[in-house]
Amino acid sequence: MEGSIFKIPTKLLQLITSEQAHQYRIIPVVSSSDEFIFKTDAEESRDYLQELAIVLGKKVVLQKESSKNMEIYLQKNYRKRTKTAQQSALRYSEDFLLNIIHEAKEIGSSDIHFEAFEKQHKVRFRIDGKLLEKYMISLDEYPKIVNRIKIMARLDISEKRLPQDGRINITNQQEDFDIRVSTLPTLHGEKLVLRILSKNTTTVQLENLGFTETELSIYKKSVKKSNGIVLISGPTGSGKTTTLYATLKLLNTNDANILTIEDPIEYTLEGVNQVQLKESIGLNFASTLRTFLRQDPDIIMVGEIRDVETANMAIRAALTGHLVLSTIHTNSAWATISRLIDMGIPSFLIASTLNVSVAQRLVRKLCINCKQLETAANTVLKEFEFLKNTPLYKAVGCSECYQTGYKGRKAVYEIIPISEELVTSIKNKELEINHYLQENKIATLKSNMIALVQQGITSIDEVYSFLIT
Question: Coil, strand, or helix at residue 407?
Answer without folding.
Answer: strand
